[in-house]
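Protein modeling request. Please complete all fields; requests missing the sequence field cannot be processed.
Requester role: graduate student
Desired output: 3D structure, token encoding
Chains: 1
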Amino acid sequence: MPDVSVIVIAYNDAERLPTAVRSVLDQTLQSVEVVIVDDCSKDRTFEVAQELAAAHPEQVRAYQLPENSGAGGEPRNVGIGHARGRYVMFLDSDDVLELNACRNMVSAAEETQADMVSGLCVRLTKDTRNEKRNEWYPWLYSTTRTLDSVAELPDLFVWDTLSTNKCYRRDFLVDNALRFPKGMFYEDLMFIAEAYLAAKKITLIPNQVYFWHVYEQAKVKSVTNSRHEMRNYQHRLEIHRRIDALLDQHGMEEMRAAKDVKFLKHDLVLHLRDLPFRDEAYRREFAEVSLAYLQGLDREAYGKAAKIQAICAYLLEKGDWDNLLPAVDTLIHRDKLSSPLVQRDGRIYWCDEHLDDPFGREVLDVTDLGYHQKPINKLFLRNELTEYTESDGTARLAGRITNPLEIVKPGDTLTAELEFQARRRSLQTFVFPVTTLRHDGESLHWSTTADISSKLRPLGIIDSVWDVRVNLTVNGVRTQTRLTVEQSDLGGGALPVKPRLTRLVGDHIEPHPTAKGHLAFRLSTKGDTERIEELLQRGLQGKPGRLVKSGYRRAKELRKTLTSGDTKLRLYHEVYSRLPVKKRTVVFESQLGKQYSDSPRAIYEEMRRQGLDFQAIWSYAGIPKDFPKDAQLVRRWSLPYLKALARAEFWVDNQSYPLRLAKRPETTYIQTWHGSALKKMGFDQPNLKAKTRQQQEAQQKHLDRFDHFLVRSEHDVRTLAKAFRLKDQTLLRSGYPRNDVLVQARQREEEAGSRVRGPLAEKLGIPADKTVLLYAPTFRTSGKESQFALPFDVERFAEEFGDRFVLLVRAHYFNHVVLPPNVAGKIIDVSSEHDVMPLMELADALITDYSSVMFDYALLDRPMLFFTYDYETYVHEDRGTYFDLLEHAPGPVFRTEEELHEAVRNLDSEGREFCDARKRFVAEFGEYDQGNAAQSIVQQFFSRWSR
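Delivered output (947 residues):
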């Protein structure tokens, strides 16, 4: 009896069957047999199977169904009936097993006595240039583990629905009468659901076991590549209904709910993507087939799916094609905004329809996506192609660009251009002006003619595909759009073109929609296309083609090499650092180039105030908005940036210049740092303590670049200096230059008995009679991307306190927040303000958590509130703190939203109660902040540069 029977099913696959069988015969586990089951193929598949059986009579047997079953289930059932091994595995004829798959899975089954063992499946797209690789839900297989029930890991049941990356005890299959549905697509889903629920033990192993080969360009599509067929979708829904019934029988409500989420996030999405290319009859049938199943889904599942997935499912259920098809465009291109949106009651909704339905209102609410806060250049707008015609080598194109919330106003200055760009980047681009562009409320209409035949000149071999874009400029600000095509046949023919190198690839160019629905053009030929294709392949494989392609590859590789990090480092160390240091040159940087702020700014402005003669260079990351105009600006990590650092006499920053850049001995590095420490830093952090000696030495080497390190108290000496292992002679007990404005503001208030708010209040539109609160939390890593979800209901806060207070929200520079429009004027996002110092000077009180702004704001001697809603997690599960905030906080500490509201109501009394605590806090943590730090630093290092 063999250890494993591998059942290989095949249909019209004579060419690939031997490779699949060979992957079994070559297994490192020798005791295996192959059971080939042919689903009544029309080609030589069964003959090939018989030949393999004849060549390996001890290991291979071949069977054939009398008639085609129409799916993969029945052939596998026949294979189970003929299997003799103690274990059973399944393999499709176009896939292969990993070399050690059988050994690893059997070993795990024997060791754990599991009914089934599952390993990692890897999808390989075979007809892509680099054989695109995609691991199948790898988080499930991060480590070896055994489950006594699939209920212990619902994600396994919900997401890994393959039957092929698993090994089953044959007795388990027989005893539970486990068989695949006959004649149904997606037979795996039903079979594996029953197997999961029947198994008393399931073992997962982190090993790769199965390579799933995908052929996207195949003439005969597989089930997964023929989702546009209605029968395909009908079968999927029927299988889902059966699985739902099975879960209901087992009383597994949570599993059913999780499966509903997966249906919205995965199964439905796969079919929705094809809808823009289907006719009205198909769409109508699709909606009718979907309706009953969508109505049976758990409504809570919509809230757990991505917002656009939920929107598409809801609009499909409503049969609202006018809003659904644009939504599908966003579903395919997540960054694209395809709806004009609508604002109602201070919230933003995907569309104006269905808002009378409470559930629809909830699903269609897209306020938290922050579309309303984005400028035009940060929006990727839908641009629907509405017209395409051709005449005498010229194409006429027209389109409609979505104008969300009328971000483009009627009086704005508009220009646009039509751009053809070769798919292979860094090659040619051809631009045609858009001749007509008009504003029409929710959309912008444009049209133009492009003399493609005369002006577009492809090379002819390496630029056979051309993408089309419309670049829209609004009041001098540019945004780029792609042309969305909603019909597979544009109705146009091919336009003649004259390639520069050869007409072998083509002498015409014709429009077509890309796989994701965007307009593109491709080179084509007229005449005997098969003959031309043969000549093309011969040419590309021959000497001329090889020369062109190798030249392109060399140029591309050279460009990549010249701009790579390693090349830049070599330039910095071997070229720029050998140039003489430029005297009186200072490179300033704040928050890794993200801001013009903090102590580097304070020192720079003091140097300008004193009229010193020096060359100032500021680094920036992103867009250099609001950086000083009287300084040279260099983009971080650019060659000018590296050259400037290599030749500068001084470096001044508050975090760190790139760690891999060595500092020259002739350069003086003044590290101002960006805040005193509550949370543990440097080598006091558990993760750094756990590093090897070599890793710690490398980290210390970066820190040893500091020639001077600014501290504002002996607390900094005990914490930061110790954590960074800095020598005492490196420390400058000067206070922070950035805090001079706070100390001076307090002194002015004490002398005058009142204070003036200054221009920032007017800029932000804050009425004089409103109390200003600043909410400045510390950095948060949770949440998708860098969005920080505020830990309280901002609409409720605005409603209760908006008549007396204005709340300024200042997120950490690694985070961003989204505020609904209905809190405008009452709650203001000030995260884009470079410098937090003017915000602190403006605020009447501070709300924070663990942020180092607490140490700075205390210098103003104004009320401080500490909203530590996640205290236990932050203090005990994160990297730890230097002191107990509950004991030292110079203001009330609380954890709930209700307590926050109560503290705001009692702000005045809280301020008086903690007056002495604030003074003690400043004495302990800000003793060197005397209001003259910038002047002191300039006097010590730069005063000799007087004109």
